[in-house]
Write a structure and sequence with these properties.
Layout lengths: L1 H29 L5 H25 L8 H14 L2 H6 L5 H8 L2 H13 L5 H18 L4 H6 L4 H22 L6 H15 L1 H11 L6 H29 L1 H5 L5 H12 L6 H18 L13
Helix pairs in contact: 1-5, 1-12, 1-14, 2-10, 2-12, 3-9, 3-10, 5-9, 5-14, 5-15, 6-9, 7-15, 10-12
Length: 305
């Protein structure tokens, strides 16, 4: 029993980023057979249907009436629409590793949004971390090719992923400064159901442009996997990490996502690993660590536990 209790926190800490990384790898695997908006709509539809029996008693109690409709709408648009469909569109142009490296910039983008919108002051180390992480993103986006950087040859997949991560950072910052008095699974159901609903117009446009896709077994199992793992599992594990470690330490699990995504992409999808991946990861993780970890000031002694 003691051994299980001791290893459970470590398993939670290591499993949450694995689930987030598997979302990116699965999106890359499905990119040739399922259009991005269709994939996003399928993921949220599966998640909403799976969660409905769990949250139905809360819905019948009218719990959603306690939250302003405008706030819920903004959360759905940021967390369920703009942060998802462009991410799956990016999978058609760039690797799962690059997608994860850009996603690792999220904590620092949240800091920038907090500064611009809510006037939250940040330490010089935060600004240095932002610059260092952005340099890592440039290395990944331009494949370590300085000539491409000078010519500004930007991969469209990396641009789409940056848009998705900006939306996710806005969603995260909004939740932090405008907390929603709802149980976590009910909020997730709102994002899932609302995301699927608001994606319908884009879905019809996609089908009108590309034609209605012929979805086979690969698409079915892929959407089921994304709905269960990315739509519910990753969120649930991360929420458990927050409960076990606190928000600050739990957020550090996200720093492991690029490592998992690069390894899974190379193992399952045959994606190549290059030296610039290591350089980009070192810069991104170094910048995030510099910007988010608080070092004790000289002469300061931490309080005893």
């Amino acid at each position: 029993m003691r051994l299980t209790t001791r290893w459970l926190p470590a398993c939670l800490f290591l499993s949450a980023p694995l689930f987030f990384a598997s979302n990116m790898v699965a999106a890359r695997w499905l990119s040739g057979s399922v259009p991005p908006v269709t994939l996003a709509f399928g993921r949220w539809t599966v998640a909403a249907l799976l969660l409905l029996p769990v949250v139905w008693p809360l819905l019948r109690q009218g719990r959603l009436k306690t939250v302003p409709a405008g706030l819920l709408l903004l959360l759905v648009l940021l967390g369920g629409v703009v942060s998802v469909a462009p991410q799956y569109g990016a999978a058609a142009y760039t690797s799962a590793g690059n997608i994860a490296l850009i996603a690792a910039l999220t904590p620092l983008l949240v800091a920038v949004i907090e500064r611009l919108v809510w006037g939250v002051a940040h330490r010089p180390a935060m600004l240095a971390g932002i610059a260092l992480s952005f340099a890592g993103i440039l290395v990944a986006a331009f494949r370590g090719d300085m000539a491409a950087l000078l010519r500004f040859e930007f991969n469209p997949g990396d641009a789409l992923m940056l848009c998705a991560i900006l939306a996710w950072a806005g969603y995260t910052a909004l939740l932090r400064h405008r907390p929603v008095p709802l149980p976590p699974l009910l909020l997730l159901w709102v994002v899932a159901a609302g995301g699927a609903l608001f994606l319908v117009p884009a879905l019809l446009l996609e089908w009108g442009h590309r034609g209605v896709p012929h979805l086979g077994a690969q698409a079915f199992w892929g959407m089921l996997f994304l709905g269960l793992v990315a739509g519910i599992g990753a969120y649930g594990l991360f929420a458990r990490c927050v409960q076990s470690f606190g928000a600050a330490r739990a957020s550090m699990t996200m720093y492991l996502v690029p490592a998992y995504a690069l390894a899974l992409g190379a193992t399952l999808l045959g994606e190549s690993l290059h030296a610039y991946h290591a350089v980009a990861m070192a810069l991104v993780l170094g910048g995030v660590a510099l910007g988010t970890l608080r070092l004790p000031t000289p002469g300061h002694r931490p309080a005893a536990a």
